[in-house]
Design brief:
about 260 residues; single chain; about 15% strand; seven-stranded parallel β-sheet; globular; alpha/beta
């Protein structure tokens, strides 16, 4: 299927590895030019080297996207589209787990800045231009914890749920939806990424079990019996960005192998 994306420009955050890289790869395969952003320059350039083999323009910005300086670097990257992106994929690593009793105000502000306020800033900077041009796709990578909160991930639960509520309202503005601009959230479950490997390692150390034992136990809670692959997530992202997905907006798309047992 031709997704109708050839020649468009996408911004993908956290794209040096994991789910962000998966999204960048899937978009590049569809002929999309991509500006990839991450804080680690070495890993980012390694990712760009592989992405360029797919034949599209790949630009890198090794900056912290949660800062105004980082965002300005994106808008001014040489050869880039300025703020005239057709696709924006917001993505930031989740805040650390813990007990809410131990979190100070600064911990909450840091989580909100990364997982709620930065995506809002990116949306604000690009969405009206999308409407003027008659095409726009904004995908926010949030978390399956938005639908099924995890007690030790309170910082993530709160910040990402705030973004979810914001997007639900903005996506339904007629001046955006009627101009072929969609905003959706992708909610990943357990994927084979560095983040889950770190989580499994921590659980193994806490329980005295091996990482393999902890991983097997986690997989048994997933009807698919496995962790997802970032490429699968990326392909879902690419479809939501496609011309064919123009009637999907304001939605929370859960990709977790069936782990969430709710009806809604």
């Amino acid at each position: 299927m031709d997704l109708g994306l050839k020649g468009k420009w996408a911004l993908v955050g956290g794209a040096s590895k994991g789910l962000g890289l998966g999204c960048a790869q899937s978009l590049a395969r569809e002929g999309v030019n991509v500006v990839i952003v991450a804080r680690g320059a070495e890993a980012l350039e390694a990712a760009a080297l592989e992405l360029r083999k797919l034949g599209t323009t790949i630009l890198t910005v090794a900056m912290d996207i949660t800062t105004s300086e980082g965002r300005e670097a994106i808008w001014s990257v040489p050869g880039g589209p300025g703020k005239n992106f057709d696709i924006v994929v917001t993505n930031a690593g989740g805040p650390p787990p813990g007990d809410f009793r131990n979190w100070a105000r600064d911990d909450w502000l840091k989580a909100l800045d990364a997982n709620m306020l930065t995506p809002i800033e990116l949306i604000k900077a690009t969405v009206d231009g999308m409407a003027e041009r008659g095409f726009g796709r904004i995908i926010n990578i949030t978390s399956g914890a938005v639908k099924a909160p995890i007690d030790v991930l309170g910082l993530s639960n709160g910040a990402r749920s705030g973004l979810t509520g914001f997007v639900a309202g903005v996506a339904r503005q007629s001046k955006l939806a009627s101009r072929n601009v969609t905003l959706n959230n992708l909610l990943p479950g357990a994927y084979d990424t560095d983040r889950i490997r770190t989580t499994l390692k921590g659980a193994a150390e806490k329980t005295g079990k091996s990482i393999e034992e902890v991983a097997d136990a986690r997989k048994k809670t997933i009807p698919s019996g496995r962790f997802g692959h970032p490429s699968e997530f990326g392909d879902t992202c690419a479809f939501l960005c496609s011309a064919q997905a123009s009637y999907i907006t304001g939605q929370n798309i859960l990709t977790d192998g069936g782990a969430y047992a709710g009806t809604f």
